[in-house]
Specification:
single chain, about 260 residues, alpha/beta, Rossmann fold, eight-stranded mixed sheet, about 25% strand, globular
C-alpha cells in the first residue's frame, strides 16, 4: 500500500526554521492566510507532499495534470527561515480510519525534524455559529505547547470553550509537540456559514506580518480570499461527485471531507 511521502525539490540552507501550516477548514482562515503569504512574499517551493489520504483523482494543470498534493514553500525572513505548508484539501477525515491522518501528519513532522525545525504553528478556524455575525472585528484563540510561547503573540482571546481540533491543523502540531518541537494552534473566529472569512484571516495575517516583520500591505487580501473560494468550491464539487457516484439516493448525506 502506498504511504505518504515528501518529495524534496531543493535543499536550501535554513536559519532557525519554523513552520506555518494552513489547510482548508472552517472559513478557510488558515488556508487564506498561508496562501497569501506564499504569494506576496514570493516564497520558493522546496517540497511536495503526496498521500493516499488525499482524494483519488488528478487535477488539470497548465502542463497536463497532477495528483492532489501538499506543498512546502520557503521564505528567508530577517531572523528565521519560514516554511509554509499548505494543500488544496485536508487528508480524509474518518474516525474509523484515523490511522491515515496520523500517518500523514507523522510523515510531515518527520520531514520537518530532518530540517531541524524548532517551532510549528497551525492556523485554523473556530466555529462561533451565529455569534460570528455580531463581531465587527473577529479575533483569534491561541493554544501553545509551552506557556513561554505566549509572549510571542499579541491580541489573542482567552476564555473560549473549545472542542476537539480535528484534521491536519490539530495532528501536525500535536505530533510536533511530542517530538520535542514548540507547537501552537491559532484559531480565527469564524462560522461554518462563511466559505472564505476574509476578516478572520486578515486579523491573523496582520499579527504575523508584525511578528515576523514581513512588511506587507494587506489591502489586497480580498483578491486572495475570492480566488481561494472559487478554487475550493471547484475541488469540493469534484470530491462530492466522486463520493456520490452517478446517482445519489434520496436522503443521502451531503458530505465534504475537510
Amino acid at each position: 500500500m502506498m504511504r505518504s511521502f515528501v518529495k524534496q525539490l531543493k535543499k536550501p540552507r535554513l536559519r532557525n526554521p519554523l513552520v506555518l501550516c494552513g489547510f482548508p477548514g472552517i472559513g478557510l482562515v488558515g488556508k487564506t492566510a498561508v496562501d497569501y503569504f506564499i504569494r506576496k512574499l514570493k516564497a520558493e517551493k522546496i517540497a511536495e507532499v503526496f498521500s493516499p489520504s488525499f482524494p483519488a483523482f488528478v487535477v488539470p494543470t497548465k502542463n497536463g495534470f497532477s495528483l492532489i498534493k501538499g506543498e512546502i514553500y520557503l521564505y528567508q525572513g530577517k531572523k528565521n527561515s519560514i516554511l509554509f505548508l499548505t494543500s488544496p484539501v485536508q487528508p480524509s477525515f474518518n474516525p474509523d480510519f484515523s490511522e491515515n491522518q496520523y500517518e500523514f501528519a507523522h510523515t510531515i513532522v518527520s520531514f520537518f525534524k530532518k530540517l531541524r525545525v524548532k517551532k510549528v504553528i497551525a492556523i485554523g478556524g473556530i466555529d462561533l455559529g451565529k455569534e460570528r455575525f455580531t463581531l465587527k472585528k473577529p479575533g483569534y484563540v491561541l493554544l501553545v505547547s509551552k506557556k513561554e510561547m505566549l509572549k510571542d503573540f499579541s491580541g489573542f482571546k482567552q476564555g473560549r470553550t473549545l472542542g476537539v481540533i480535528s484534521g491536519a491543523n490539530g495532528l501536525i502540531p500535536g505530533i510536533a509537540r511530542e517530538e520535542g518541537m514548540e507547537a501552537a494552534i491559532i484559531l480565527g473566529e469564524t462560522s461554518s456559514g462563511i466559505l472564505a472569512d476574509l476578516s478572520s484571516s486578515e486579523a491573523i495575517v496582520r499579527m504575523f506580518n508584525s511578528l515576523y516583520e514581513f512588511g506587507l500591505n494587506v489591502k489586497d487580501l480580498t483578491k486572495e480570499s475570492e480566488r481561494l473560494g472559487k478554487e475550493i468550491t471547484r475541488i469540493q464539487n469534484e470530491i462530492t461527485k466522486q463520493i456520490r457516484g452517478p446517482k445519489r439516493k434520496e436522503g443521502e448525506d451531503k458530505s465534504y471531507i475537510r
